[in-house]
């Protein structure tokens, strides 16, 4: 009796086509799902971007329409002008020089600031620069930044400011507007002599400057300088040597009383002022 030959069959081998098919189908399904999700996400992003662009266009259009509406309306016309920062300048004249009219548009002057700045600073030496602001849609505010005042020079009509950049103020002001903390230059009929004394004054220590009440140009010699101090004393010096001799002044002033002349022009000595000198310096 012959033995039947038994052939072994691997079940996995017989089922592998089916298993592979099922696996491939799952992969295809997942791939389709991924593609579908990607397309859906892309569609959503495009839709969101479209709405953003549309919103931006609408927003810009609304702002442009509102801006144009404001510009052509009477609300954009200059209603009032306010000047801040310089009380000695004539307001009407400043406005006229700036060429600002009630029919002008506020926004035009905001963008024309450099032109206004140039017009005003060219005419008024007091003005360093200006800043323009708008309040309540159509109220124009000119904020004036002025040069620092270091003293005053007296002339026949009143007093003019001596400004930090070396120029004189354009306005003549009364004694009531002169700051008592600043020195007054008197007897300077020529601007050259004033500039020379001013140069000397600026070179002196601040501690000494603050003690000076008056500088007199009525001197015997061009090289001579005369200071009336706030404590009632008078200091006489030489333009070229005064700065180096101030150390003697500090020693002398502690030993003398009021209404004393301290002479630092040649040497360094002091004496009481005569009655005529007191009258000449306004100390009586």
From TrEMBL:
Membrane topology value: Single-pass type II membrane protein
By what name is this protein known?
A: Cell division protein DivIB
Database matches in PANTHER family? CELL DIVISION PROTEIN DIVIB (PTHR37820), CELL DIVISION PROTEIN FTSQ (PTHR37820:SF1)
Q: Establish whether keyword Membrane is in the entry.
A: yes
**What does the UniProt entry say about where the protein is found?**
Cell membrane
Indicate the family of this protein.
Answer: Belongs to the FtsQ/DivIB family. DivIB subfamily.
Q: Give GO BP annotations, semicolon-separated.
A: FtsZ-dependent cytokinesis
So where does this one cross the membrane? 54-72
Q: What is the lineage of its organism?
A: Bacteria, Bacillati, Bacillota, Bacilli, Lactobacillales
Tell me the function of this protein.
Answer: Cell division protein that may be involved in stabilizing or promoting the assembly of the division complex.
Keywords of the record, alphabetical order, are:
Cell cycle, Cell division, Cell membrane, Membrane, Transmembrane, Transmembrane helix
What GO cellular component term, any one, is given?
Answer: plasma membrane
Q: Domain of life, per the record?
A: Bacteria
**Location (main, coarse):** membrane
Q: Does the keyword RNA-binding apply?
A: no
């Amino acid at each position: 009796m012959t033995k039947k030959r038994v052939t072994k069959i691997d079940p996995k081998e017989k089922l592998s086509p089916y298993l592979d098919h099922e696996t491939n189908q799952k992969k295809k399904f997942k791939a389709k799902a991924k593609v579908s999700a990607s397309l859906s996400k892309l569609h959503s992003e495009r839709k969101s971007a479209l709405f953003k662009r549309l919103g931006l266009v609408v927003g810009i259009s609304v702002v442009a329409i509102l801006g144009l509406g404001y510009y052509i309306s009477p609300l954009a016309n200059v209603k009032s002008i306010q000047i801040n920062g310089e009380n000695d300048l004539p307001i009407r004249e400043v406005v006229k020089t700036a060429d600002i009219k009630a029919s002008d548009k506020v926004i035009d002057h905001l963008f024309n600031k450099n032109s206004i700045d140039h017009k005003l600073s060219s005419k008024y030496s007091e003005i360093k620069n200006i800043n323009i602001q708008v309040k309540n849609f159509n109220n124009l505010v000119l904020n004036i930044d002025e040069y620092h005042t270091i003293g005053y020079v007296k002339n026949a009509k009143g007093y003019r400011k001596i400004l930090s950049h070396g120029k004189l103020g354009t306005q003549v002001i009364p004694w009531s507007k002169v700051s008592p903390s600043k020195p007054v230059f008197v007897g300077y009929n020529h601007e050259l002599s004033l500039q020379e004394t001013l140069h000397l004054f600026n070179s002196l220590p601040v501690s000494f400057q603050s003690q000076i009440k008056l500088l007199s140009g009525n001197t015997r010699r061009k090289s001579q300088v005369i200071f009336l101090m706030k404590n009632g004393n008078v200091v006489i010096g030489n333009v070229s040597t005064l700065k180096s001799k101030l150390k003697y002044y500090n020693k002398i002033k502690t030993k003398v009383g009021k209404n004393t002349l301290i002479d630092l022009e040649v040497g360094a000595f002091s004496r009481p002022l005569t009655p005529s000198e007191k009258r000449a310096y306004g100390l009586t």
